[in-house]
Specification:
The chain starts with a helix and ends in a 7-residue tail after the last helix. Helix content is about 75%, strand content about 0%. The protein has about 130 residues and is mainly alpha-helical. It is built from seven helices and no strands. It is extended. α4 packs antiparallel against α5. The chain folds into two domains: about 60 residues; about 35 residues, no CATH class.
Length: about 130
């Protein structure tokens, strides 16, 4: 049987100091703030996760709970995708990245992964070390 109190102690022991100590966290924020916009990055990361969750809720309900695919359902997904891209754009801004360069890098990565230009299960599951 699992002892949750023991597991809690384990989790605490393997959690980084900036994750559990405000002074250490503030030191990391200060150090990173010389390179990126940390508040905007954090807002973007949490915002994207939340909006992706809202988007995923719709197909989940359609596929597993019988919600119909209607014009309203499509509109709702469209709006949630807009929210995702809004936070994505803020992440690009926070990291001083050109959004066009981000998309191009994705294209380059996928072209390298699928050199024939089509999906391949083997290539998807057996990636080179630099394909993260």
């Amino acid at each position: 049987m699992i002892d949750l109190k023991q597991y809690q102690s384990f989790v605490t022991a393997v959690t980084s100091d900036p994750s559990s100590n405000i002074d250490s966290f503030n030191d990391r924020v200060t150090a990173l703030s010389t390179q990126i916009n940390v508040p905007l990055l954090l807002t973007s990361a949490i915002g994207m996760a939340a909006e992706i969750g809202e988007f995923c809720e719709i197909p989940k309900k359609m596929l597993f709970q019988g919600k119909p695919l209607t014009d309203d359902t499509l509109f709702h997904m469209k709006r949630e995708l807009g929210d995702v891209i809004w936070y994505w754009m803020n992440a690009c801004t926070a990291l001083n990245l050109n959004p066009d360069d981000v998309i191009q890098e994705n294209i380059t990565k996928l072209e390298s992964r699928y050199p024939g230009g089509t999906f391949n299960v083997y290539a998807s599951e057996h990636r080179v070390a630099t394909d993260i």
